[in-house]
Design brief:
Layout (H helix, E strand, L loop, with lengths): L18 E7 L6 H9 L6 E7 L5 H7 L7 E5 L7 H11 L4 E4 L5 E2 L3 H12 L1 E10 L4 E3 L9 E5 H5 L8 E3 L14 H7 L7 E14 L10 H17 L8 H27 L5 H11 L1
Parallel strand pairs: 1-2, 1-4, 2-3, 6-10
Antiparallel strand pairs: 4-9, 5-10, 6-7, 6-9, 8-10
Helix pairs in contact: 7-8
């Protein structure tokens, strides 16, 4: 596909870094090696990986012991232990030098061609994304993918990006990269992605699954108390929406975000009911299972 190839602009020096990958790391000793390995084997070679440590682990030494030393990997430390992924990502954002910026959590991994595929699209359109499958640690199986279509690339609107059952890792051109909301501990990706649509109408999504999202039972997003936490956060976000605390400037995006928050809150309540009957089910399995049942 023609957009896989990158043409160097006149202003782009040979040392230009095309992609910055931000990786917040918290209690990630068991998984970070696989995540880092998936960056090192990228077919696009012009990247930097910023590992932002948010706990007391020495991930630099750990990665070197795994034989994964690479001069393109840089280590930062968050301002306080357990400051949260949003604070860690914002620290990485301040240091990122790439023409595009994306995220990789320390328990997920990329396919080798992810950057080569998405960087040119993000440079052209401002934002890009890809399809994704979830891997359930406990059940040891994949769930998904998020999108089912035979088309290689589709344009996805704001609502469907915001309500995606598996979090969507957008690739941003650096000049329109938003900040993460550090006061949110849940659903921060919904608000972050909403800000992309202040700049674009739709996001081009490559429908190959180039990113793998891990469902870990010990994480907040998949804990037994998930539905209670989520309902309280959605209520808080809707209240902040009504008082314009979410700081969105585009009225169209504001309206879509409100519909998305209401929809996700309703879906969370339906998941709560399903979880009470089957505590082994994940949110992703529940939502994508509903789609298959239609």
């Amino acid at each position: 596909m023609s957009w896989v190839h990158i043409r160097r602009s006149r202003r782009q020096s040979p040392r230009t870094i095309l992609a910055s990958i931000l990786m917040p790391a918290f209690r990630a000793r068991k998984t970070i090696a696989k995540a880092v390995s998936s960056v090192i084997v990228q077919t696009l070679r012009s990247w930097e990986l910023l590992v932002i440590t948010d706990d007391e682990n020495d991930y630099s030494s750990l990665i070197k012991k795994e034989g994964l030393y690479d001069s393109r990997i840089h280590f930062l430390r968050s301002r306080a232990v357990a400051s949260g992924p949003s604070a860690a990502l914002n620290m990485g954002r301040e240091s990122a030098r790439g023409l595009v910026v994306t995220r990789l959590d320390a328990d997920d991994w990329y396919e080798p061609e992810r950057l080569a595929t998405l960087v040119p699209i993000a440079l052209r359109h401002g934002v890009a994304a890809d399809n994704v499958v979830a891997f359930d640690d406990r059940k040891r199986r994949e769930i998904g993918p998020w999108l089912r279509t035979s088309r290689p690339v589709i344009n996805v609107d704001a609502f469907n990006i915001m309500v995606a059952p598996i979090p969507c890792l957008l690739v941003f051109r650096h000049d329109i990269l938003p900040k993460w909301d550090e006061d949110l501990t849940f659903a921060e990706d919904v608000i972050f992605n909403a800000r992309a649509f202040e700049h674009v109408e739709t996001v081009p999504v490559v429908t190959d699954c180039l990113w793998h999202y891990r469902i870990r039972n010990e994480s907040l997003s998949h804990s037994a108390n998930l539905h209670n936490v989520a309902d309280a956060v959605y209520a808080q976000l809707l209240e902040e929406y009504d008082t314009n605390q979410l700081r969105l400037n585009n009225p169209r995006v504001q309206r879509i975000l409100r519909y998305a928050l209401i929809y996700k809150r309703s879906l969370n309540r339906a998941f709560c009911s399903a979880y009470s009957r089957d505590p082994t089910i994940s949110f992703q399995e529940f939502v994508l299972g509903q789609r298959e049942a239609r």
